[in-house]
Amino acid sequence: MPPRSLLSASTRADLFDIPTGFDDLVRHYLLSPPDLELIRTRRRDENRFGLAVHVSLLRHPGQGQGKRMKLVSHYALSDVILT
Questions:
Q1: Domain span at 59
Q2: Are the CB atoms for 29 and 56 separated by under 8 Å?
Q3: How far apart are CA 74 and CA 53, in angstroms?
Q4: 62: helix, strand or coil
Q5: What angle do CA 1, 15, 48 make, to 5 degrees?
Q6: What percent of the chain has pLDDT over 70?
Q7: Is residue 16 part of a domain?
Q8: Would residue 69 count as lying in a domain?
Q9: Following CA atoms 34, 30, 81, 13 in sequence, which dihedral angle do they give, to the nearest 10 degrees?
């Protein structure tokens, strides 16, 4: 017997999916000065960007990137995270 799901698919999506609206992206993923200080310790651009994405995903929805998780476009995230 498969395990019972406590949340419906729509409720799970509301809680754990990455938001796509600009205001929601800013609210959840705007990095604090200590976050930016940590990110700047990486040498290459791709490493800084990757760490910024991981820090943001750990903040909301509270887990790292999973196999089923769809990331918002690279450009949308970089505009919010790195500016």
A1: 21-81
A2: yes
A3: 10
A4: coil
A5: 115
A6: 71
A7: no
A8: yes
A9: 130
